[in-house]
Amino acid sequence: MMALSLKSSMAVFLGLIVLFISAQCNGQEFHNCEPGWDYFNDKCYVSYKFPIYTYNEARKMCIAFGGTLAVVNNVEEDLYLKGYTEGKYNLWLGANDIESEGEWKWEDGTSMTYSNWAEAQPDDYQTGEDCLHILNTGSQQWNDVPCDIHRGYLCEKERFCRVVPVGVESKEDVPDSHITASSDWATDHMSYQGRLNYVGTGSQSWCAGKKEVGQWLQIFLGRDRRVTGVATQGRGDDGQWVTTYRLAYKVDGAWHYVSNADYSPKAFQGNSDRNTVVYHDLEDDAFTTQYVRFYPMTWHDHVSMRVEVYACQ
Ligand SMILES: [Ca+2]
Ligand SMILES: [Ca+2]
Ligand SMILES: [Ca+2]
Fold it and tell me: pTM of whole model > 0.90?
């Protein structure tokens, strides 16, 4: 009896672990590389081939893109990166020995465990050569060259984006003051009641003050976030919901719609009942912003909705 109960508690314990792990996995979604970036071995790469950047300028470009100059970790990656030279472009890679002559360090702070120097390199030739480029000729091996000459470059960045709700529902990073609207129906039908799954006092959703196109519900994210998805829901305590909407975001003071290929604003399918959550993965339409707006275009009975925004953690 003892043995059996021990065994069954073990089974429950293991079952819980499995549940926990699968919940963890279901809570994450992984995105591939952004448009313009190439995927290889779980990383994303982009190149700029024309020789107009110093090492430091190229370095800054890659950082601005959210990555670093390419850090070559192994022979597979090295072989892959050679392809970008096309046999004619010398490209910066992310390593230098600026700090201490002869001690090569990658841009991610790691020391150089894998290397593929061309014969007689690195030679710190003449006035000194402290930056690494991949040679366009021969076997496309590596050479140290002066950091202020002009080259193209290779950037690398992480592929994965762990998608999480920004906190409209949980209120964690989105206080009431971050949820605003073009208009509100009444003091108990406010924008901040537009949180996904809101069931508090007043209407169980934001209700616009006007049943008109042009109304919006805005979420201020508090900082730049890579927005990858949105979800909407109808009004919980009444038969009102938004059936289609547009999505806009602010960059450098200007609003942009998420658009179709012909630049017309994309129409997102909204809701068809009070409580079902309709989620949209933005995929290649993902954008980086601090402000997201939902613009209801069509609705059932009233412009009423609850929302969540999803972004890379
Ligand atoms: Ca790498
Ligand atoms: Ca050197
Ligand atoms: Ca050299």
Answer: no
